[in-house]
Fold this sequence. Notes:
With 412 residues, the protein is an alpha/beta fold. Helices cover 42% and strands 24% of the residues. It has 15 helices and 15 strands.
Amino acid sequence: xxxxxxxxxxxxxxxxxxxxxxxxxxxxxxxxxxxxxxxxxxxxxxxxxxxxxxxxxxxxxxxxxxxxxxxxxxxxxxxxxxxxxxxxxxxxxxxxxxxxxxxxxxxxxxxxxxxxxxxxxxxxxxxxxxxxxxxxxxxxxxxxxxxxxxxxxxxxxxxxxxxxxxxxxxxxxxxxxxxxxxxxxxxxxxxxxxxxxxxxxxxxxxxxxxxxxxxxxxxxxxxxxxxxxxxxxxxxxxxxxxxxxxxxxxxxxxxxxxxxxxxxxxxxxxxxxxxxxxxxxxxxxxxxxxxxxxxxxxxxxxxxxxxxxxxxxxxxxxxxxxxxxxxxxxxxxxxxxxxxxxxxxxxxxxxxxxxxxxxxxxxxxxxxxxxxxxxxxxxxxxxxxxxxxxxxxxxxxxxxxxxxxxxxxxxx
Length: 412
Ligand code: C2E
Ligand code: MG
Ligand code: MG
């Protein structure tokens, strides 16, 4: 096995480089796929292609073993193009067989900046294989943004103009600032694994994460949490409004044939919604009776909101066919109440704002109340006032000291 550069003499480094260059020439690099799942319902949404070195002895080399050597020259670009070609071959094969496909994210090194017209090459490679551009997500690490932001902004714009999606990878790993993310017009923000450290036991870690997701959601970026390993992390990320989950909790990077099976299984499950219930059971084991109960609640209530009073956050579990539709699906609890109050009849606004202010709710919880319920008149999208019953049920989080509220709203 090759060691990292730090452990080696210069002669050994040269040997290692030659071995890796040969591996590239001999097409010894293969693609592992790591699925990305929707955070709330658990369906497969996409995957990331990760390079692995299949050595002549059959063992598998990890990126840490070969990428540093390839990055020294332009060879990393060659690897990225090889990985893209493999991904295109996989997608093409499935599409031709009429099988389900999902978008695949491919990592591209910052060295592509020096290659000339990146977008044109990307188009040529994908068009040659008849791959729709929206099936390829181009991942660029945040460290590239820091190194040459002007050129990256131009590159991202040219890639998106051709219909590819662009993801900023490893966001929060240290080098980029929020303003760079604002300036680079990407579609997806992948939040670095390091921000999930210590299983989010620390308040400050949670505040930082919540703020990042809030900021990304408001910029309408699709968010992907990288490196999710525990149910606690998943639970918290759901309350932050995180869109997609990539991590060992759901799936490790895997061989093409294993990923193909997951894609096909997903296709069958979609017809029956089997996958969604399977996933919820997997991450939050409950009896199937509980599942059915939840479904009944969603049928009865057009608006169901989960809020974390302690963290001042909320997300909508369901928001279908309600008379007003303008509220963001996740965000800050205090803002939700302000928004709700502003849509009420002027005579009911104060009652609504006072009853559901987080301090009042916490006081009601402390006083032992199980539920706070009022009826107010709310203006619908059609300009007509209707009586709405809002019932807030208190629940103690099973995983932390946080006080949660489940809000059930219906027209009465
Ligand atoms: P990345 O692009 O941020 O990829 C995600 C890495 O996080 C992968 O490591 C993946 O295995 C790992 N990971 C995902 N979920 C978990 C988890 O729950 N726990 C833990 N501990 N790790 C998790 P991997 O495959 O070792 O790749 C490392 C890095 O190498 C990648 O980070 C990417 O920057 C680079 N890389 C991989 N393939 C390519 C490639 O084809 N081209 C280029 N330019 N870089 C690549
Ligand atoms: Mg990546
Ligand atoms: Mg990453």
